[in-house]
Amino acid sequence: MTAIPTIVVDADACPVKREIVEVARKFAVPVLMVASHDHRLQEEAGVAIMQVDRSDQSVDLYIVNHIRRGDIVVTQDFGLATIVLSRGAIALSPRGQQYDDSNIDYLMERRHELAKKRRSGGRTKGPKAMSNEDRAYFLQNLTKVLQTRQENAKP
């Protein structure tokens, strides 16, 4: 039988924390929210909080050093998602996109190109505002991932 995954959340700027907790409770899956000390998060049943220092990569480093194969990581950070995938974990964006080998290289290349453009004085658009459709898509995909894990764990 497969170990129960933990949903690990890059919680500093995650807009779907409440949704994660709701779905995790339905599947009896523990949640670990990792955030810098600049963000106050409340512990609650089934949700552990880890506060790390505010340096640039502290949240990412904590997550990378504590995830296990099969865990589910929610992050907007493509670089973190790349490492998560290499560790055998599942990576989802807060909008519900599942990062995988078929899309992560493109996303990293796009991020690099936009950063080059900004460094040379160009302007780029930020992400669009989170919509109710984005939240619904996230809920649908997180539920699907957890259902698949549950079905695969049955003897």
TrEMBL record:
InterPro entries: UPF0178. It comes from the Bacteria. Pfam families: DUF188. PANTHER family: UPF0178 PROTEIN YAII (PTHR35146:SF1). Belongs to the UPF0178 family. This is UPF0178 protein I8J30_15900. It comes from Paenibacillus lignilyticus. The lineage of its organism: Bacteria, Bacillati, Bacillota, Bacilli, Bacillales.
